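sorry for the late reply, my laptop died twice this morning and i had to redo everyting from scratch. anyway the thing you sent over, i finally got around to it. pasting the sequence first so we're on the same page, its 217 residues, then the predicted structure underneath. double check i copied it right bc i was rushing
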Amino acid sequence: YFIIYFIILLLFTLTTLQVDLSSNGSHQYYKFMADKPFKLKASPYCYRILVPLISHIIPVENKISFFLVTYFFLTCLIILLHDFIYKLTSDHSLAFIATLFTITIFWCMRYFVYNPYLADPAVFVFLLLCLKFMYEERNVLFLLSFLAGIFIKENIVFVFPVFFAYSAKKEGFKKGLSNTLKWAFAPFIVYVIYRLFAFDKYLGADIISSLKLYTSS
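ok and here's the structure:
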């Protein structure tokens, strides 16, 4: 199964052109952050610090480091996805079919071969880790995965209500709420504090502007 997965990833790599760095797009923000961590003040990219920071730390030029980071997370995504589906179904064949279907979706894998400067493969991995540890009731690892993932891309916050719903259904509303506040609330608060105070220029301005936009429309 894994040989087939990696052959597909290799074929995607050999048959996909890479993004033009001179073109406008999100990749320009991430590349700037890898060159100068914590210097960018453009919201929301400035809050997605973890992947550019990892690329900055790797002792090679950023173009290569982003490729290494992206391929690492794509590989982890394949392994985690197959493993997670197998644990839910106890059927390797079904896990293979579901994983194969997922990784052949353009926006799941091939797009990130085309544009390896984005944070999405990493957030996919940490989202799966959160679901895996939630399902296995390994709450400390869930908390750490959630905390790391929230600094990759903010859309992982949707795991917060998922954790509550899963815990409440399994252990009742009160116990589910208690577990959610204990294991899922802290990363959310840490992120909110960071988002409000990390950059003076954006002291909540992007949140306020968004509210004004939606309430006035």
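Residues 62-89 form the longest helix (28 residues).
thats about all i looked at so far, will dig more tmrw
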